[in-house]
Every structure is written in C-alpha cells, then in structure tokens.
Amino acid sequence: MENDDIVWSIINKSFCSYKVNTKTQRFCRNEYNLTGLCNRSSCPLANSQYATVREEDGNCFLYMKTVERSGFPRNMWEKVKLSKSLEKALRQINEYLVYWPGFLKQKCKQRLLKISQYLIRMRKLRLRRQKKLVPIQRKQDRRERRREEKALVAARLDSAIEKELLERLKRGTYGDIYNFPQVAFNKALEEEEEEEVEPEEYGEDDENEEEEGELDEELEKELEEESENEEIEYVEADSDLEAELEGESDVEDIQVNKTQSTDSIKENIRRKPRLEIEYETETSKSLKHKV
User: Fold this and answer.
1) Alpha carbon distance 116, 98 (integer Å)
2) pTM above 0.85, yes or no
3) Residue 4 · residue 12 · CB < 8 Å
4) What integer pLDDT is reported at residue 1 of this predicted model?
5) Which residue has the higher pLDDT, 241 or 150?
C-alpha cells in the first residue's frame, strides 16, 4: 500500500531525478507535472490521485491517475480527449473531476487555457509569411573563391604562353626542329587579319562622314551669299526710286511716277514679300509754292 507522505519525505529530503534547484525556487521536469513546480500538492509521484492536461499534435488530453490503477504501471494514466472548443473542454473537465480536489480542477482549467492560447498563436504564425534563415557556409565560399582565382591565373598564363609561341613561330626562331600543328597557327593569323580589317572599315566610314559634312558647309555658305546679294539689289532699287521722286517737279510727272513706283513695288512685293518700301509724296499746295 502506497503512502504519499512517505514518498514525499523521501523525494523532498533526498535525491529526485526530476528536481531542479535554483536560487529562488525548485522546479520539476516530470512531463505529468501540473504546475512545473516541485511541491507537495503538485508532485505527480507523491499524489496517488492526480490529474493533468497535456497537448499532443494540436489536441488537448486530460490525464487522470487513481489509486486503483497503481498496481498496473502500464495502465496507470487514463487518457481522455478534450474538445477543441474551450467551453466544451471546460465542461468535460468539470464532469470528469466532479469529486476531485478543487486545486486540481482549477489548475487543470488554467493549464488548458494556456495551451489553447499558444495553439492559437501557432496557427496565426503559420498563416503569416515568415523569413527563412539560410546558413552561410564561409569555408566553402572561401574554397570556391580561391579555386576561381587560381583558374583565372592559369587561364592568363595559358593565353600568354600561346601568344608567345605564336610570335616565335612567326619569327621563325624554332625553324624546322619541331613539328607544330598548323591549325592553331592559321587560326591566330585569321584573328589578327580580322582585327586589322575592322579599324580600316571604321576609318573609311569616318572619311565619308567628313566629306558629307564639308559638302553641307559649302552649300550653306553659297545659300548665305545668294541671300546677301538679293538684299543688296533690293536696297539699291529703293534708293533709285527715291531719287527719281525727289527730282521731278510737275504734278503730272509725280502721278505717273506714283503709278510706276506702286506697280514696281507690288512686283517686288510679289517676288519678295519680306521687303517693305516707304516713300513720301508732296501735295499740290507745296508744289504751287515751289513754282
């Protein structure tokens, strides 16, 4: 027959594998512990009648231990699945723990509430977009960087050696001592010829562009000279008309000159609409006084 007081006296004063001592409190690491504290009321080993709530794969279960099953360690804990609804789960706890101590009832409900809260938080976090942490392999990166640098150095050396050998073959330093493959030599010659041809083509294009630019400049100069000559001619014609108008004294001659000048002005305007000619006429009274 088990005696809970004897078990607790042994656990409390001597060694217990589940007990953890700290500066302020003592904790219990037993998976069936209701509160996580090491004391007489919440110790699952020192209480023959005990109940707790546990979570497995998102579901809550009520575990109950009684004295009648103490002789069968395999079937010591009775397992009851609780509803996902918090209200229904609390009702189930009240139904199964009707005649149990109030301390166990209260702590089981409190534990159920905490478990349901962290399950809700877990579901919300899963729905959110989360950042994935990727480890950086520094040693592997350094190794690859060194290999790349070595490969670049080797490639430069190979190209330099190839160029040097081709130049020596061109000079004829080796003569007929060695039998070199002619394919690589011909390929290098073709590449050099292509490089020489390309700048010549670019030079011809530049010359053609320069010639076109010179022709355009010459045409612009000719057009400017023609426009200047035309302006000069129009100015001279205007001065001749003014001299003729001032030299004549008779009214009839003035009227005739008016018609001629107006006709000539209209013709000039039709030819060149930009020119504007201004002239002065004397009235009949002024002409009488002069006579």
Assistant:
1) 22
2) no
3) no
4) 46
5) 150
